[in-house]
Amino acid sequence: MNTHAVQVTNHLCGSPPTHESCDGNGNPVLNFHPPLFGPGNSNTIDTEHPFNYSVQFQEHIDSEGSQENQLVALVTIQQGEKVVTNTMANGALNGMWPQLASGMVLVFDYWESSDMTWLDGASCQAPSQCSGNKAQVSNVHIAMNA
């Protein structure tokens, strides 16, 4: 996450999961950008100040019992303002639902590259590294509704 945009992307992998069997570009791609998210009070979420961010994985079963309606909702809240983006009925997300249901590892990733393919492509073409700038992640909560 940076001050100008957030992108969350699912990378479905085949079995066994290897670099070659994973969708490097990702699907779906969910993102926040100005005027909803960015530095300055002209944005709904002003990234120059603390904000709460959550990712929710929700299972929806339709009237015929189909579970092909998995939902990912990204919610950002700051001083009473809320921004929500979501996707539903995505094949790649539905394909990884069993792994989500059995538990996954939470990963915070913080790095950069001069060519930006780490964000919008399948692989980096230039050396990548952390910028060295500090990021603060606090108040992390993991909740599961049974």
Automatic annotation (TrEMBL):
One of its GO terms (molecular function) is hydrolase activity, hydrolyzing O-glycosyl compounds. Signal peptide: none annotated. GO terms for biological process: carbohydrate metabolic process. It comes from the Eukaryota. InterPro entries: ConA-like_dom_sf, Glyco_hydro_7_sf. This is Egl1 protein. The lineage of its organism: Eukaryota, Sar, Alveolata, Dinophyceae, Suessiales.
